[in-house]
Design goal:
The chain contains no helices and 25 strands. It has 192 residues and is mostly beta strands. The N and C termini lie far apart (46 Å).
Length: 192
């Protein structure tokens, strides 16, 4: 069941496929070459005034993606298999080339090909006003706090507190946005 708006702008080259739940408000803009593949049992619910720039791919075989208001997805963003759910708060900026994956394969049974081993999943949450820089990769189970900035090219494998500037591979908090010392929010012994 899909709700596709009569207003707003969806470029004619956009591919919307599958029989999962899709809700797109009339205030949404979806640019050329984007693919929204939402299979039965999965759901894609976009908030008001979202912008999806060219050539994004949202592939939901299972799970859900829900966004708040005023969220933008830069060119080439990939959201893949959010089986545990992806929640993106209001006013988030997802820059070009960002990838979010909500599932992975187990790989401990050496006698089985990895492809045949069970999948696992965990939710991904971006609170309000999060900025993911270009090329950031966000893995399952990550929670990024309100107002955090994640530097370009980072691989986010663990949760990041609110109002932090974080970057690296693996991504770690480096400083607070407001100038407060890092020690005020990171327990003693955590690496900067």
């Amino acid at each position: 069941m899909s709700t596709i708006p009569k207003g707003g702008f969806i470029h004619p080259s956009v591919c919307i496929d599958g029989d999962g739940l899709i809700e797109i408000p009339a205030s949404t803009i979806i640019e050329a070459g984007t693919v929204l593949a939402v299979q039965a049992g999965a759901s894609l619910v976009l908030g008001e005034r979202n912008t999806i720039y060219p050539n994004c791919t949202f592939r939901l075989g299972q799970g859900s993606l829900r966004t708040g208001r005023d969220v933008s997805f830069g060119p080439g963003v990939v959201i893949y298999e959010p089986r545990g759910g992806i929640s993106i708060g209001d006013h988030c900026l997802i820059a070009a080339g960002v990838m979010m994956c909500g599932a992975g394969h187990q790989f401990t049974a050496l006698e089985l090909p990895i492809r045949q081993q069970p999948m696992w999943s965990a939710p991904i949450t971006l609170e309000e006003d999060v900025w993911l820089g270009m090329g950031v990769i966000v893995l399952p189970g990550v929670h990024i706090g309100r107002g955090a900035v994640i530097g370009a090219g980072s691989v986010v494998t663990q949760s990041i507190p609110a109002a932090m500037v974080a970057y690296g591979s693996p991504c770690r908090p480096r400083r607070r946005r407001d100038g407060e010392p890092l020690a005020a929010v990171c327990p003693a012994g955590d690496p900067p």
